[in-house]
Design goal:
Layout lengths: L17 H12 L13 E4 L4 E4 L4 H27 L3 H22 L10 H11 L13 E6 L2 E8 L4 E2 L5 E3 L4 E3 L4 E3 L4 E3 L4 H30 L5 H7 L1 H30 L3 H6 L20 H9 L37 H21 L4
Antiparallel strand pairs: 1-2, 3-4, 4-5, 6-7, 8-9
Helix pairs in contact: 2-3, 2-5, 2-7, 3-5, 3-10, 5-7, 6-7
């Protein structure tokens, strides 16, 4: 039997080859990535994709600030006096309205409004092959419209050159978010998100509850100042005793008219089963043509229209923003330039704040909206 000879290897002679270093770097770069990290639209994601917002959402903190500051002043300076002279139910009613307003606002802002995923390269090529029936090898731009029948009425579908697909009925492309949104209503900077099929009900609850809250605070502040002035004090002395009430009065006075008008307008839309986009463009009236065409989506009943708009089942999100991107998965058209890590990765403290907000919103949804 031969003797085995062992030789000690000098660690200094061991060196990593450039090819192995490159393979290690590629292995690190090829970590599993979620779809929100390569999302082609102009959105910001937080809490590992659980929260979606528009990129231009700077007005949302102003909305939250006005609501929180006004309610905070009301509970701190007006409620003690009103509880002592009127009833203890005033802060209870105000607290319930405040919870509804804040919860519905966060739910509207953090919910996917109904974004449609963009067509992949293969899907876009297949649509172009179906459109180009002339057999010519030269490129021909696809037509802008496609006609379908809905309730025995012709509805035109527009081709989206960004998403490379024909938009489904009532879908529109939001220029602010760069997404096609199903049942697009409008882009609302006050909530920092689009309003569409999946979050319209929360938006409607937000403006209705905000109307009640603003009117309630406005009436209570006037009652507070009136009761103080009835004790023989002048208006100046009354203001000096409660300057915060004047601040609330000014905020409510300049905001209540627009809020009430917005609530009335959207109540009309809900009762008619219309969207803001359709009403402004006059899609189902004589504004768009010589002949007047009715709304093919209405049920000809106010109650049925309200139930279909507000009380239907919540449709699932179609973009699967927390799913993992597979190596062999087809890339949506227009997303190749956004494959790098997006600049909206946030710090852990911001993630913790938004996760806390989601927790309270989820509790609200389970308690108050569980039957929807």
């Amino acid at each position: 039997m031969k003797n085995c000879e062992y030789q000690q290897i000098d660690p200094r002679t061991l060196s990593v080859s450039p090819q192995s270093a490159q393979s290690l770097g590629e292995a690190k770069r090829q970590r599993p990535r979620r779809k929100w990290e390569v999302f082609p639209g102009k959105n910001r994601f937080y809490c590992d994709g659980r929260i979606i917002l528009a990129r231009q959402n700077g007005v949302l903190p102003l909305t939250l600030g006005l609501i929180v500051v006004t309610c905070g002043l009301f509970f701190a300076f007006d409620c003690p006096f009103l509880v002592e002279h009127l009833t203890v139910f005033i802060p209870v009613i105000g607290g319930v309205l405040f919870v509804f307003v804040l919860s519905s606002l966060l739910r509207t802002s953090f919910t996917d409004p109904g974004i449609l995923p963009r067509a992949t390269t293969e899907e876009a090529a297949d649509v172009e092959r179906q459109i180009d029936t002339s057999g010519s090898s030269t490129y021909r731009p696809p037509p802008r419209t496609k006609e379908i029948l809905i309730n025995q009425q012709v509805v035109k579908l527009k081709y989206c050159f960004t998403c490379k697909m024909f938009r489904p009925p009532r879908t529109s492309h939001c220029s602010m978010c760069d997404n096609c949104v199903e049942r697009f209503d409008h882009h609302c900077p006050w909530v920092g998100n689009c309003v569409g099929k999946r979050n319209y009900r929360f938006f409607y609850i937000f403006i209705i509850s905000l109307s009640f809250l603003t009117s309630f605070i406005f009436g209570c502040v006037i009652t507070h100042l009136t009761l103080r002035s009835q004790t023989g004090k002048s208006i100046i002395q009354t203001i000096q005793e409660s300057p915060a009430s004047v601040v609330e009065l000014v905020i409510c006075f300049f905001s209540i008219w627009s809020i009430l008008g917005l609530s009335g307008f959207h109540t009309y839309l809900v009762a008619s089963n219309l969207t803001t986009n359709e009403d402004i463009k006059g899609s189902w009236s004589s504004k768009r043509g010589a002949e007047e065409s009715g709304n093919p989506y209405t049920y000809n009943s106010i109650i049925t229209n309200c139930c279909a708009t507000l009380c239907g089942p919540m449709p699932p999100s179609l973009i699967d923003r927390r799913g993992f991107v597979l190596s062999d998965e087809a890339v949506p058209v227009g997303s190749a330039s956004r494959m790098e890590l997006p600049p909206f990765a946030v710090k852990s403290d911001v993630n913790m704040f938004f996760c806390t907000c989601i927790f309270f919103v989820s509790i609200y949804q389970d308690i108050f909206l569980g039957r929807w």
